[in-house]
Amino acid sequence: TVGGGGMGGSLLENANPFIYEPSGDRPVTAGEEDEQVPDSTYAWETFDLIRSINDPEHPLTLEELNTVEQVRVQVSDPESTVAMAFTATIPHRSMATLIGLSSEVKLLRSLPQRFKMDVHIMPGTQASEHAVNKQLADKQRVTAALEDTHLPEIVNQCLSARS
Q: Among 6, 62, 69, 150, which residue has the fewest nearby CB atoms (within 10 Å)?
């Protein structure tokens, strides 16, 4: 039997995921270090925020599972919008909402409040993609979910650094 190595402690939905090589750290440019230059928010910077989120089921990051990729993060600094599409590792995985919620929380905690977030699952990658996207787009549902007694603990585990 495959045991609960994941955060939920139950049987794994995806017992043998394919693991991808992380892209590595991006070098910091002189312009980014210059305090006189106004900061802008970029797609690569936003990707850096979410790539290290832990999968709720495996001791792997979303980047290692190819759940998130930099090419699926779009940022418009002038319009204050961030769009991030993610994929589920298997089409019937119930963890998709938790992955989306963890990503959204990380962005909400990290980016300026002026940004409007659109975190959604890639079309055709999840059996219940419409329901997942509807939940993630409903800010009242997201807020209510985070007020739940157990869910914030799981989200925080996904966002914490691995030891």
A: 150
d(CA 57, CA 9): 8
Q: How many CB atoms lie within 10 A of CB 102?
A: 24
Q: What is the tens place of the pLDDT at every residue in 67-126?
A: 999 999 999 999 999 999 999 877 776 789 999 999 999 999 999 999 999 999 999 888
Coil, strand or helix at 47: helix
Contacts of 49 (CB under 8 A, 6+ apart): 106, 107, 110, 111
Burial 1-29 (b: 16+ CB within 10 A, else e): eeeeebbbeeebbbeebeeeeeeeeeeee
The four Cα atoms 120, 123, 126, 128 give a dihedral, to 10 degrees, of 80
Distance of CA 20 to the CA centre of its chain: 16
**56 in helix, strand or coil?**
coil
β partners of residue 37: none
Distances (CA, A) of 16 to 44, 53, 131: 29, 19, 26
In DSSP terms, 133 is beta-bridged to none
pLDDT (tens digit per residue) in 39-72: 567 888 899 999 999 998 888 999 999 999 999 9
